[in-house]
What does this fold into?
Amino acid sequence: MWKQRVFPVLCRLEDFKPHNTFPIYMVVHHEASIINLLETVFFHKEVCESADDKVLDLVDYCHRKLIMLVARTSCGDPSEEEQSQDSTPMQELQKQAEMMEFEISLKALSVLRYITDCVDSLSLSTLNRMLSTHNLPCLLVELLEHSPWCRREGGKLQQFENGRWQTVAPSEQQRLSKLDGQVWITLYNLLLSPEAQARYCLTSFVKGQLLKLQAFLTDTLLDQLPNLADLKGFLAHLALAETHPPKKDLVLEQIPEIWDRLERENKGKWQAIAKHQLQHVFSPSEQDLRRQAQRWAETYRLDVLEAIAPERPRCAYCNSEASKRCSRCQSVWYCCRDCQVKHWEKHGQTCVLAAQGDRAK
It folds into this structure.
């Protein structure tokens, strides 16, 4: 909500000319950290089941991100020339925020897929939100049609994977990408689950949209995701079935608590919040900025991150638990001096190159 309501106001303020945009970048980046965490934990079904009604807010969040993906496809990507033009720090920050928004939206797609894996245990309000309020199956069809994670550059097909655009070799172009796979699995969960089928109203519009999927269900795709044969059968049956008019039953809909509360508490205050944060949060003195940078450096120190890691480091030579690190490159661990000496013949050249690279930086 801050990115949607406050950040645009901040960018428009005439007196907002920060000497350093790093504090505001960290706030914008915070959403990316959280969605990465959510993607990791929602892989486990028990997390989704324990989230209760908070899943409503998360479903709405994922829906907003998927809408942004579809809108991005219609607007197109900025050209390399536009991205390389000289710009102010705030303009550069806005460009970084837009790029980050794309990656966050792709993560939201994965989170939504993990939620639909638990469709049989979701509340009626959540199912109704996904199928009736947002009509997610039709939105997912739009995503498959446009595939915003694919593009053509210089006549070559590129796919967005592992945080960057990668050129796809001609021999690999029929391979199902991870993101396409997430969309297909989500559609499978929403359309073939008995709980969802009982509540999804198949109107003539919905039927027309879903039948577009038949063109994508090739033998090559079915070889890679055999479960989609059931979806193909469902669509063949749908093509012959009669459609139903929209239901006019009385529905008591549960409202997402978190978003609704924030909207209600801050309505009409967004301009004031932006001005307050301009003065007290995003215009730090040099001394405050140094203290803040020191806190960030301490937070992301290697030894701090390793202390909270679930597994202790292992010796690169004998694989036993290690407590000593190579003093030159700081990246390889050993349990004792003897193992380091024995491993040096293999590690030495790499270690020297890594140390030289660090000095060059």
